[in-house]
Amino acid sequence: MWATLEQIIDRLKQGRAILVIGHAQPDGDAISSVAGLVTVLRRYGLSASGCIADDIPWYYKSLPGADLIASPRELRAHSFDTTVVVDSSDIDRIGEADVLFEGDVPDVTLDHHRTNRGFGRLNYCDPDSAATAMIVLDIARALVPVDRELAQILLLGIATDTGFFKYPSVGAHVLEAAAQLVQHGASIQRIASAVLENRSLNTLRLLARMFDTITLREEGKVAFGWVSKEALQETGCTDQDTEGFVGEIRALHGVEVAILFVESSEGEVHVSLRSKSFVDVSEVAAALGGGGHARAAGCSFKKASLDAVVDKVVTAAVQGFRKDARR
Ligand code: AMP
Ligand code: MN
Ligand code: MN
How many CA atoms, within 13 angstroms, populate the side-chain half-sphere of residue 116? Predict the structure, then answer.
């Protein structure tokens, strides 16, 4: 059932051993909201552990919070009485972390994806929240003092999910929250230098190869590019190094919909969709089994060829573009 934040907080207070799970292929908001909630619950005197199925990308590891997140294997021997899933629009997003509460649904979900249908016992989802970390900040304010470390952890999700304060989700409320966190001692510069100014030369070479694949449709309003597994191998990169690539496609003049395809391993393709001003890419992603927000969404394919995924997704995105262009 859908719950208020007060009901969620009451439920969390009853937990004796709380497990907080974020989505696989973690981004800054998944890391921030898991580590932030674990920190809040521990400071409040509760026992809490954080878990994410896939590895934390290396460039987040220098920031506080990453060390509060374990793999499902590391937590297998523990038992938990309360499971919280954050920043995930459906249960499939948590990947192999589902082994930690077999066959069951999570007790609590906290999220901000408009495609979330509420898959836990108690669910809170605010699509107007710029990041799940904003929701965790509200919980923090209700329970504990926000110190420098907690502020730094929560600022990560807000900064990364807003494209460093430039997406349409950024209103005065987001800037006020960020300003408060900075007042508590958090540094935006520290996050920007870890996430934005930390690319290896190999990654730049991979980006150059991606640029060469860029293809335009609908008179340049729809643009897509791809990273094949050969390109990853030949440049010595992994799929983690493609963070931010889709933004480079969206930055192209005149583009409304940008799509990036990453073939992370044989048969596995992750698709990132972005739009600039009017196409709802969450509808396109949801129709393909994924989800997300109006201006940023994604979906993943298993056992599919890169070519077939490109064809299928581009066709769907062009249809979505034409539909929303008529509105
Ligand atoms: P990404 O393109 O991976 O950065 O994801 C953009 C947005 O879409 C994020 O808010 C994700 O949480 C969401 N998203 C990405 N992949 C999926 C997926 N396979 N299923 C549901 N939502 C997704
Ligand atoms: Mn996320
Ligand atoms: Mn998020």
Answer: 27
Q: Sign (positive/negative) of CA torsion 115, 241, 152, 197?
A: negative
Q: Are residues 92 and 216 in the same domain?
A: no
Give pLDDT tens digits for 21-44: 999 999 999 999 999 999 999 999
Residue of minimum CA distance from atom 22 in ligand 1: 291
Total domains in the chain come to 2
* Separation CA 271–CA 253 (nearest Å): 21
Residues 170 and 222 reside in one and the same domain: no
165, 196, 227 — which closes off a domain? 196
Distance separating alpha carbons of residues 85 and 120, to the nearest angstrom: 8
To test the pocket of ligand 1, the residue of 31, 89, 114, 281 to mutate (highest count of ligand atoms within 8 Å of its CB) is 89
- Ligand 3 centroid–CA 132 distance in Å is 5
- Give me the domain span that covers residue 269: 202-325
Tens-digit pLDDT profile for residues 67-108 = 999 999 999 999 999 999 999 999 999 999 999 987 779 999
Residues 181 and 315 in one domain: no
Residues paired with residue 125 on neighbouring β-strands, in sequence order: 111
| Residue position matching structure tokens 């192999």 | 96
Task: List CB-based neighbours of ion ligand 3 within 5 Å.
Answer: 29, 87, 132, 161
